[in-house]
Amino acid sequence: MYSVKEAFYTLQGEGARAGRASVFCRFTGCNLWSGRERDRAQSRCRFCDTDFVGTDGQNGGRFADAHALATHLHRLWPGTDDTAATPYVVFTGGEPLLQLDTALITAMRAHGFEVAVETNGTLTPPDGIDWLCVSPKGDAPLRITQGDELKLVYPQDDAPPANFTHLDFAHFFLQPMDLAPRGGQGTTMTDTVAYCLDHPQWRLALQTHKIAGID
Ligand SMILES: C[S@@+](CC[C@H](N)C(=O)[O-])C[C@H]1O[C@@H](n2cnc3c(N)ncnc32)[C@H](O)[C@@H]1O
Ligand SMILES: Nc1nc2[nH]cc(C(=O)O)c2c(=O)[nH]1
Ligand code: SF4
Ligand SMILES: [Mg+2]
Predict the structure, then answer these.
(1) Is the peptide bond before 128 cis (omega within 30 degrees of 0)?
(2) Nearest C-alpha to atom 7 of ligand 3 is from which residue?
(3) How many domains does the chain divide into?
(4) What would the pLDDT profile of 19-32 be if each residue is shown by its tens digit?
(5) Which residue range is the domain that position 129 belongs to?
(6) Which of these, 4, 74, 123, 154, could form a disulfide with 174 (CB 3.0-4.6 Å)?
């Protein structure tokens, strides 16, 4: 059984593959925050910009098996003549590695999809992921030390970028923290730009879907 908060067709907004047409599957639940505002200040991850509670979002629900969920997600990919475009699914959440398994990856591949994952890096991933994005959180122990992109939300007092520069990733991004979820305004853009200028291993990553006004 898989619990899905919402699923939708959009452009990947973040990281090295920003701009790519994607089906997003947002799983319910996370291991670093309950998702309830009253728990936010005491949680291990305190700046989350996402509602991942329940299954009541667009195209959300509970799916009995991998075949059922893969069929549901495949239907969200447009039936165009654009055969050059490989269908792309991004599993996120919440924390997708609480639910994503080999059966679901295999079922998506059978539908012709490339499979991407956005994870906090604290859980072991199943085999078969085509694009792995890891976004470390505070002092939560990092289990995944290699992948395609490391995308650190900046700044986090207990997760300075220097803690991660030795890891085995193809891309190192700093993503300015959006302060709105914590009742603030704007982002930490100025500080993030300054850090990238001083430390050229890191590249600036913007949440382009928020600029574009899409999901
Ligand atoms: C909502 S998380 C879900 C996936 C996974 N739990 C994780 O944390 O990577 C998706 C992405 O949004 C980023 N994110 C969450 N809150 C943010 C915020 N306030 N500002 C900028 N990025 C944020 C996360 O770091 C992660 O890269
Ligand atoms: N367009 C868009 N791109 C995204 N990239 C990562 C997201 C996420 O919430 O995991 C996200 C999202 O929520 N929307
Ligand atoms: S780990 Fe990801 S989903 Fe969980 S609270 Fe943090 S940003 Fe949100
Ligand atoms: Mg998001």
Answers:
(1) no
(2) 48
(3) 1
(4) 999 999 999 999 99
(5) 2-212
(6) 154
